[in-house]
Every structure is written in C-alpha cells, then in structure tokens.
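Whiteboard transcription, Tuesday session. T.W. wrote the structure tokens on the left side:
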C-alpha cells in the first residue's frame, strides 16, 4: 500500500510518538487500535495523528484507498471535533480519541443543530464518525441519525436540487473567470474547462490524459472516477473541442496527465482548490464553487436535449419521456447509474400539463461540500 507519510518519524513535541504505517485491517477491539500506546488524555493530538496515519486511507469497508479529498476532510473534521470537545465552556470533554463514546456524539449533534447546520452537513459529520468508530474498535457506537434527532426533518436530506448551483445563476462570466484562473495557473484553468465542458470531477480532470483519453468522438474517464466506473462522454460542441485543444497544448508527452508534472497528484489536487479560492471562486465571493461547473454542465446538457431550461432553473413543463431521456443522459455523463441522481443537479421532475412539479424518489445525492461549519 502506498504511504505518503514518513513512517517512524517522531511527532514534533511528543516524545515517544512516531508516524505509523497504514494498517491492512481494522482493529478488533479498542485496545488493538494502537497497540502499546497507553491512553493519556493530555496527549490526544499525537494519538489522533497516529490513528489517521494508520487508518485514514481506507474506506468504510476497508476494501480500497479513498480519495485525497476524503482523507483531508476526515482529518480536518476529526481534529476540529476533538478540539471542540475539550473547549466547550459548559462541559469540557478532555478525552483521548479512543475514549470517544455515545454521550460525546450526542453533545456534538445538539451543537450542530443549534448552529443551524444543514441535514447534508450533519449527515456527513456523522459519516466521518461512523468510520472513526471502526478505527478505535467500537463498531456500532454511532447510532442511526434519527435516534439523535427529535424532529426527523432536522436530518432529512433532499434528493433533488432545490436551488440553482450553476455558475449562470448569478451571471458569472464563465469564460472570463476561467481565463483569469488560467493566467494564474494554466493547469488549473485547463482542468476547469474540462469540468464545465464534459462534467468531469476535479480528480477526474487532474488524472485525465488528453492525448490518450480523448478520441475523435468521445473522451473516456476511468482514473479518479467514483467507484472506479469507466464512462465515455461524447464530443459534440466547439467548446469541448477547444477545451481539449487547450489541454493538449500543455502536454509535453503523449502519456502526460492534465496536472503540473512538478507536483505529485495530491499536491495538484490541493493546488486546484487553493487557486480557486485565491481567484475568488467561493460561495461568498461569486455565489458559486468549483463544483458548480458540474452543475453547469448538467443543466446545459438537459437544455440541449429538451429545448428548455432545467427545472431548477425555471424551465417549462415537458413531456415525461423527454425529461427521462435527458435525465438518463445527464446521469450517464456525470458517472452515475440511475436517472434519479440527475435530480440533484437539474431539479425535480416536471409533470406535463399539471402546473406543478413532483419530486423524484429518494436517492443519495452527490457528496456535499464539507467544511468546518458548526465549529467556532
């Protein structure tokens, strides 16, 4: 297994604690999570570092390595979570991370609700804790979400987009914005063009090989895809051809990835978000995020097929069969297997002649962007 950490390197300021190699299996008990490391409440920080070193690369079932973004999200969340447990003014929980229990999770849930966090964010935080419980040998410690909420509406996620998340919502000049990014970093600019013209995810665009993965009629994504699913997206517009030409122009070899060769893959991934933020591509600055480029592609694809804007953008009611055709095409291009997932991008299913819209059956939406909401 590839390890990005310096195994055996001492943890700064904590004598006796060193960086650990990733584990190949889950601990069977709490004592086996970090064998030989005694529980010390004052040394929570190096213990959490060691737990992340050992287990953070693996997914919930311990069958594959998760993306860098997932690893970073988990780690950032866990450190903020345990800091807040210790800092609470009413009751400070000064615990070793391996001592985490039900009462601590209930305290955190109450705090998140009081902070007004969205159901998607709360669900994401609990998902991180469900993975963490496996790291410390306490399977089943995190209860079903409904057990923490007196009102089910507090944790009920919507399966469809309730607001327009495309860059067109606030009249963002897509070409000018990407051009500004490209002037700062041509690699990131080329990656963004691939996202808005082909619906690629950030990781997919970074791991895309322009000369190898682009054919005459379609491009192929299979590196960095969710679940390792391979898919093809047809080349149909001049904007797509221009995006591919710009990507190929950066390549020095036929085998090259659409990423700065001076950086490793993880650094390129982090570089993408750093450049976006420094260029003002945030919800606070322009009302949209980089992920909004996928929403932009999805809604444009829907409109190209149906002749009307997507429901989330106020489109007209259309024939159900045409709507289904468009949703299947959008879902396929975005790398999803079911048409229901398209609702998370284009909105609720319109019913022709009814004067209203109906929602699609519940289905998991795309992973929400996670941050540090709920932590002061």
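and on the right, the sequence the group agreed on:
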């Amino acid at each position: 297994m590839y390890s990005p950490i310096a195994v055996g390197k001492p943890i700064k300021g904590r004598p006796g604690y060193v960086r650990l190699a990733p584990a190949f299996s889950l601990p069977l008990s709490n004592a086996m999570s970090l064998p030989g490391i005694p529980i010390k409440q004052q040394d929570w920080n190096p213990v959490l570092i060691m737990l992340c070193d050992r287990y953070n690369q693996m997914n919930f079932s311990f069958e594959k390595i998760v993306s860098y973004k997932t690893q970073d999200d988990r780690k950032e969340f866990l450190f903020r979570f345990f800091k807040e447990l210790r800092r609470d003014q009413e009751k400070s929980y000064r615990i070793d991370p391996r001592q985490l229990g039900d009462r601590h999770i209930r305290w955190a849930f109450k705090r998140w609700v009081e902070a007004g966090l969205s159901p998607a964010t709360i669900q994401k935080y609990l998902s991180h804790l469900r993975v963490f419980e496996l790291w410390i040998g306490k399977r089943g410690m995190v209860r079903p979400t409904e057990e923490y909420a007196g009102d089910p509406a507090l944790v009920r996620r919507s399966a469809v987009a309730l607001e327009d998340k495309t860059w067109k919502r606030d009249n963002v000049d897509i070409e000018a914005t990407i051009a500004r990014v490209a002037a700062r970093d041509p690699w990131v600019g080329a990656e963004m063009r691939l996202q808005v013209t082909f619906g690629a995810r950030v990781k997919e665009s970074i791991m895309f090989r322009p000369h190898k993965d682009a054919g005459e009629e379609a491009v192929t994504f299979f590196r960095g895809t969710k679940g390792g699913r391979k898919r093809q997206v047809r080349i149909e517009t001049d904007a797509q051809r221009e995006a591919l030409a710009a990507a190929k122009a950066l390549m020095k070899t036929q085998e090259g990835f659409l990423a700065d060769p001076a950086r490793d893959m993880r650094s390129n991934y982090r570089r993408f978000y750093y450049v976006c933020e420094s260029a003002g591509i945030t919800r606070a600055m322009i009302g949209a995020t980089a992920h909004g480029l996928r929403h932009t592609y999805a809604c444009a694809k829907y409109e190209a097929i149906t002749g009307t804007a997507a429901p989330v953008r106020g489109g007209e009611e259309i024939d159900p069969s045409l709507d289904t055709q468009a949703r299947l095409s959008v879902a396929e291009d975005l790398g999803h297997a079911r048409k229901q997932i398209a609702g998370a991008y284009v909105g609720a299913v319109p019913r022709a002649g009814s004067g209203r819209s109906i929602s699609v059956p519940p289905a998991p939406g795309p992973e929400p962007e996670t941050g540090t909401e709920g932590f002061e």
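Someone added at the bottom: The radius of gyration is 23 Å.
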